[in-house]
Design goal:
Elements (H helix, E strand, L loop, with lengths): L12 E3 L13 E3 L1 E2 L2 E2 L8 E5 L2 E2 L6 E4 L2 E4 L9 E6 L25 E5 L2 E7 L10 E5 L2 E5 L44 E4 L2 E4 L2 E2 L3 E3 L4 E4 L4 E2 L5 E3 L4 E4 L1
Length: 242
């Protein structure tokens, strides 16, 4: 009789060693061997199992665990049996290190791609390391929202910050850091501007001021001192109005 059905693309038919001599009416699990050697089939569906001339249904009448077969009911003593392997499992092998590129992987296995304003800056990223403290992130579906801490309220977290730029910079702060006694530092509260070499200051003083000991202050007058505002000039310090 000619072969019926789709031809095998790999492997071969095998008949496993007879296990019927072990049937005793109570035993359900048996070792699978081929030519006396341990045999491990690919799955229960790769076997054609016959007990007493009746073909058994895979995963219902029997299951496979590595090189053993377990029947749902113990085969009776004297039952004949045979097991045919419907083709051998194909071994794929392990690729050499560094031989598989991203183009051969599914998109879900390629890691994370990092972009900035639409420009790709990294592909296949598997780890993100946020340097510093206060950084947070949250996951929504397939999106990760990242928040980088830059200090309270979006201000600089340190009193010692260096700024260099080729652009025009506006500087504003609510508090003088420390005692304002560090030469070489410019700290501004209120309004101050330098335009084309001209110094522009506020003519209305609405906040109490203190000139520390060993420091001098300068007003470009005339100036108006607001109600309840005081100007405290420490000993050995000078306030000049020009």
């Amino acid at each position: 009789m000619p072969y019926l059905g789709r031809q095998l693309t790999s492997g071969n038919y095998l008949k496993l060693d007879d296990i019927s001599s072990q049937f005793n009416g109570s035993k359900t699990t048996f070792n699978l061997k081929s030519g006396g050697n341990v045999f491990t089939p690919g799955s229960s569906y790769s076997l054609l199992v016959s007990l007493g001339g009746i073909i058994q249904e895979a995963e219902s009448a029997y299951t496979i665990d590595r090189d053993t077969i377990t029947f749902a009911s113990a085969p009776p003593t004297g039952h004949d049996a045979f097991i045919i392997i419907l083709g051998l499992a194909l071994g794929v092998g392990v690729p050499a290190d560094g031989s598989v590129g991203l183009e051969h992987l599914q998109d879900t296995a390629k890691g994370v791609g990092i972009s900035s304003s639409g420009t790709v800056i990294g592909t296949g990223i598997t780890s993100l390391n946020f340097v510093g403290t206060g950084n947070t992130f949250s996951v929504t579906g397939s999106s990760v929202e990242i928040s980088i801490s830059s200090g309270a309220g979006g201000t600089f977290a340190s009193n010692s910050v260096g700024v260099h730029t080729t652009k025009i910079v506006g500087v504003n702060t609510n508090n003088i850091a420390g005692a304002a006694t560090s030469e070489g530092a410019m700290q501004v509260t209120g309004n101050l501007a330098i335009a084309e070499g001209m110094l522009i200051t506020d003519s209305n003083i609405d906040t109490s001021l203190n000139i520390p000991s060993g420091k001098n202050g300068l007003f470009i007058g005339p100036v108006t001192i607001g109600a309840g505002v005081t100007i405290d000039v420490a000993t050995n310090s000078t306030l000049v109005v020009v």
